[in-house]
Specification:
Elements lengths: L1 H23 L11 H6 L1 H18 L5 H9 L1 H7 L14 E7 L12 H11 L3 E7 L10 H9 L3 E3 L11 E6 L3 E8 L7 E8 L5 E8 L13 H5 L1 H34 L5 E6 L7 H7 L3 E2 H5 L17 E5 L4 E7 L10 E6 L1
Parallel strand pairs: 1-2, 7-8
Antiparallel strand pairs: 1-12, 2-4, 3-4, 5-6, 6-7, 8-10, 9-10, 11-12
Helix pairs in contact: 1-3, 1-4, 3-4, 6-7, 9-10
């Protein structure tokens, strides 16, 4: 038993060190050391592994349990970003606004599973005041009204702002629908030919407060089903190595590109004359450089009023929360919920904002 405990202790030390490294990941720019981002990505798993070691030492009656306890307590504040036991709720009052965001994956037309009608039905029932979509498409491959016509009618929206000023909405991009008149709009571009970017608009809300709303879509990791592991791949060393290299290469590129894009968006937000509401697909987890920089001194609506894990990615790889609603500390959020994903690889997210 002594030998077993020694082996377990060595493994526990390794798991504890990796967990501590995951806490450091949000503070390390991937352009400086991209490997750190992988530790942040592994945080939920590392936290659970250390909890299992704690249970083991507790059963064995060993004081070594102090080590996993210390490692977990040092980063316990991060746990609330990943899982919430309960969420704050409030009743919508006259000047409050309902906000919603979703990466709609071009309403499923790339997969031949159109869900524009389903999402317009959801909007009709929920009646949000401001909606941000990423990977939006104005025209479907099937005959019918433009997407914006159907969505405006379903939600009672008076305005919609496409990708930048006078944008051609036939292109892929991001969009904001609103019941409030925009005072000014613009677009933070990530470079020519890049569909990712941050669309923004200033709105005068009920009660005459003005806010700046961003619909943001950061660089994807571009992981597809060809990178997904199957049972036969595990048994074939050559295929397993090839897929592993592809995954690491794509994740590395995503980490680095997002770090550049984050700088552009945060610099722009810092100049906003109004409180900010930032919504969108950030393609990164809570223990990441992207999350820490984009959040800044703002509030995360999930942390304020979410419940459960709140994971939003539903693609072929492990699920994470990578879609967010952030807001200025002067605003308050309640009733955070994840909705259906229809046939997208992202779930819808929504919240009530009081100002």
């Amino acid at each position: 038993m002594i030998i077993v405990n020694r082996i377990v202790w060595i493994l526990n030390l390794l798991a504890g060190i990796l967990l501590l490294l995951s806490y450091a990941a949000p503070y390390i720019n991937p352009m400086i050391w991209w490997i750190a981002a992988f530790f942040g990505l592994a945080f939920p798993m590392l936290f659970i592994i250390n909890a299992l070691f704690l249970i083991y030492w507790l059963i064995m009656g060993k004081l070594k349990l102090i080590f996993p306890v210390a490692c977990m307590l040092l980063g316990y504040s991060h746990f609330g970003k990943v899982y919430k036991l309960s969420g704050a709720e409030a009743v919508k009052e006259e000047n409050d606004i309902q906000v919603m965001s979703m990466n709609v994956k071009y309403f499923g037309q790339g997969d031949g599973k159109f869900f524009l009608d389903s999402i317009t039905q959801y909007i009709s029932e929920f009646q949000p005041d401001i909606v941000c979509f990423q990977e939006y498409a104005e025209y479907m491959e099937y005959k019918g009204s433009p997407s914006s016509t159907k969505i405006k009618k379903a939600g009672g929206f008076r305005y919609f702002i496409g990708k930048g000023k006078n944008a051609d909405l036939k292109d892929k991009g991001t969009i904001i629908f609103s019941k409030f008149r925009p005072l000014k709009t613009g677009y933070v571009s990530f470079g020519n030919g890049n569909i990712n970017g941050a669309l923004w608009a200033d709105f005068v809300l009920p009660g005459k407060d003005t806010v700046r709303v961003y619909s943001c879509h950061l660089q994807s990791n571009n992981l597809g089903r060809k990178e997904q592991f199957h049972q036969e791949d595990v048994q074939n060393q050559e295929v397993a190595v090839k897929k592993s290299k592809s995954i690491i290469k794509r994740l590395k590129a995503g980490f680095e590109k997002r770090s550049e894009q984050v700088s552009l968006v945060t610099e722009h937000m810092a100049k906003s004359p109004y409180p900010v509401i930032l919504m969108g697909d950030m393609n990164d987890t809570q223990l990441s450089y992207t999350y820490r920089k984009m959040l800044g001194d703002k509030k995360d609506a999930f942390v304020e009023s979410g419940k459960g894990a709140g994971n939003t990615y539903v693609g072929p790889f492990p699920s994470y929360r990578i879609d967010y609603i952030f807001h200025d500390a002067s605003l308050r959020s309640y009733n955070y919920k994840t909705g259906p994903h229809f046939y997208s690889d992202h779930k819808l997210i929504r919240a009530l904002i009081k100002h």
